Structure prediction request, 142 residues.
Amino acid sequence: MVSNSRPQNLDKIVEKFKRRDNPKQKYEQLLWYAKKLAPMPEEAKTEENKVLGCVSQVYITSTLEDNQIFYQGDSDAQLVKGLVAFLIEGLNGLPPVEVVNLTPDFIEETGLQVSLTPSRANGFINIFKKMQQQALGKMTND
Prediction:
């Protein structure tokens, strides 16, 4: 079932994780996303782009093109990098307003909380909030 309130790309990823029954498969899926993530330029890894509240080092940047937001991100931890890649793949190309209005309930739907340590699950939410914050900053006041 595709959620009407959720962007199509994000929905596809959530469905993929829902089909994985055991935590090991979910981890493997995250590591696969981590490998697919485009490298982030070192100079973008600044305090301003750092995600706070994460045990590992996580960075997110965004650009706006034709009212669509595009993210770049990285982490020094492979699993967290997978979470970053998951969110980037799910949110890239959306209008900023759509990212801002998105509720994080999709995170729970993936079943990843069960597989992640509490600090990683919390980090996942913090990464998502950072992306929303950046989208909010890019919203045009028209």
